[in-house]
Every structure is written in C-alpha cells, then in structure tokens.
Design brief:
It is a single chain. The chain has 77 residues and is an alpha+beta fold. A two-stranded antiparallel ribbon has the order 1-2. It is elongated, with a radius of gyration of 16 Å. The model has no long low-confidence stretch (mean pLDDT 83).
C-alpha cells in the first residue's frame, strides 16, 4: 500500500509535489514460475500544472518503475 508523505517534506518552489498520493501493489503468483504484478495508483500535482502534463508524468513514471523492476527481477541472485 502506498500512502501520501507530502507533509513529511518541506515545500519548495523548485519542485511540484504530488499530493493525495494513494496506491497499491499486488504480486500474484502465476504458473510456470511467473508472477503478475499490478499497480493501481492515484496522485494529484500541487501547483499550477496542466492536467494533460500531470497525467503524462504519472503514466511515464509508472512505466519507468515497471521497467526498472523488471531489470531488478531479471538479475540472477
């Protein structure tokens, strides 16, 4: 489960922070030594950021997370 930690960090003008962040990760075993990884999440940017840009950033950051997770899981232990 992912929860919002916005209040733990001081505000700064250099960054647009995500607020109202919520999400869940599910790891579901499948056949043949595979797993299904499902991420469901929500975040709302603070400040004056266009909705289309915020949506694009949310999608690309989620995709990047899955790519990095795949690389990590592909490494031999």
């Amino acid at each position: 489960k992912i929860i919002d930690y916005t209040h733990h960090f001081p505000a700064t003008k250099r960054y647009v922070r995500m607020e109202k962040v919520e999400g869940t990760w599910e790891i579901i075993p499948q056949q043949y030594q595979q797993v299904l990884i499902r991420y469901t999440g929500y975040g709302e940017p603070s400040g004056n950021l266009p909705r289309w840009l915020a949506n694009q950033l949310l999608v690309s950051s989620t995709y990047d997370t899955f790519v990095q997770l795949q690389k990590l899981l592909s490494k031999e232990v």
